[in-house]
Amino acid sequence: MKSKPRYRSLVYSNFGLLLLLFFSCQETALIQIENSKLPKLYEAVFTSQSPQIDGQIDSLWASGNWSDSFVDIEGVLTPKYKTRFKMMWDNHALYILAQLEEPHIWGTLQQRDTVIFYNNDFEVFIDPDGDTHDYMELEINALNTAWDLFLNKPYLNKNKVDNQWNIEGLQSAVFYKGSLNDPSDVDEGWTLEMALPWKSLSRGSKQETAPINQFWRLNFSRVNWDFSINKGKYSRKKDPKGAYLPEYNWVWSPQGLINMHLPEHWGYVYFSDKKGKQIDYPEEAALVQWMYAQYREKAASEKKGQMLEKKPVALWKGEKIFLEKRVLEDTVYYVSDNPHNQKTYRIRSDGKLDVRSR
Q1: Which residues, in sequence order, are CB contacts of 75 under 8 Å at separation 6+?
Q2: At what angle do helices 285-303 and 13-24 cross, to 10 degrees?
Q3: CATH code 2.60.40.1190 region(s) in the chain
C-alpha cells in the first residue's frame, strides 16, 4: 500500500507577491537570500557505547541533546502534547530516542507495513544527500509496529513508492509511562527507542558507513488522532456523518503545509565526532531554501509558457542569482553559479537538486 501525502494546498501566500516585486524593481533592490528562514538544526553526537534498545531513557542518553519541542506542521499552532527527540550514532547505527506526552496510549495495528499513521505514531524521514529524491520513511506506533518505505521522489513530482523495502536490522522498543489500551486511567506518555544500521540506509546514502562530520536532511513527525471509546476499546473519532476527524500533524521542522513530503523543509542534522563543536548550517542552506520556494511557486506557470528567461531576482553573498530556463539533461528552473565555492546549483523540473563543481 502506498503512503498518502497529507496536505491541504500548495499556496505560498507571500512568494507570489515577492516575485512580482522582484521583477518590477531595479537590481539595486534585489532581495538578500541570506535572510531566508532556515529549517531546524541538530547535532547528533558520537557514542562509544551502543545503547540498549529497550525504550527507556538510561544514563547513556545523557550525552545527547534534546531537540526543540515539536510544532504544528504548518508552523502556526502549538500542539496539545509535547514531543521531542535525541539522536546519537556510532560506527554501526543511528540511534533515535523519541519522548511523547500522551494521556491515552493506544494502538490497534500489529502487521508490519500497514498504514501506521491510521494510529497515533512517530515518523522519521531521511534524505542523506539532501537532493529531495531517494529518501526513506519509517513510521512506528505505540504497539511498536513499523512501516518502512523508500520513495524515489516526492508525491508532487509523481513518485514511485517501494513498500517492499525494509530497514534491515532495524531495532525498536516502546516503553510506557502508564498503560497501553486501557481507557480507565490517565497516562503520562511513551518513549520510543530505535537503532537504524548505516548499512540498511545505503540505498539512500550510497554508502554503508557513518556520515562522520557530514550533514543529512531529516525530519520527524508525530500523528495524533482524536479518539472514541466503545466497549473499552479505542478508535479514531468520527463526525456525525461517519467521516474520521482529521489528524493532528506535529513536526520538528515546520513544513509550512500539511505535507511531510516536501524534503526541502526538513531539518539539517550534523553527525559530529566530538561533542561541543561549533556547528552552523551549510554555506548554501539559505540559497537552497530560497530556490525551492521559487521552484514551488513557478513550476505551474512554467507549464503555461510563462517562464522568464535569464532574469536576476536576488543576491547571495553579493552575487546575482538568476531565474532562467536551461536544457541540460532536463529542464532546469533556477540556477546559481557560486563564485565562492566554484559550484553551480540547479533544480531540475522533477524537483531534484543538482549541485555540480565547475
Answers
A1: 254, 255, 256
A2: 90
A3: 41-272
pLDDT single digits (tens) 257-294:
999 999 999 999 999 998 778 899 998 999 899 889 88
Least-confidence region, from 60-64, 165-169, 226-230: 60-64
Strand runs labelled E in 102-143: 121-127, 135-141
The grid coordinates listed for 338 are 557560486
Burial of 203 (0-12, 13-18, 19+ CB in 10 A): middle
- In this structure, what C-alpha cell is assigned to residue 53? 534498545
Give pTM, 2 decimals: 0.88
Cell of 69: 519541542
Provide the b/e sequence for 133-161 (b: ≥16 CB within 10 Å): bbbbbbbbbbbbbbbbbbbebbbbbebeb
The CATH number, out of the four listed (3.30.70.2470, 3.40.30.10, 3.40.50.150, 2.60.40.1190), of the domain defined by the range 41-272: 2.60.40.1190
Neighbours of 339 (CB within 10 A): 10
- Residues in contact with 249: Cβ distance below 8 Å, sequence separation at least 6, in sequence order: 6, 72, 73, 221, 222, 223, 258, 260
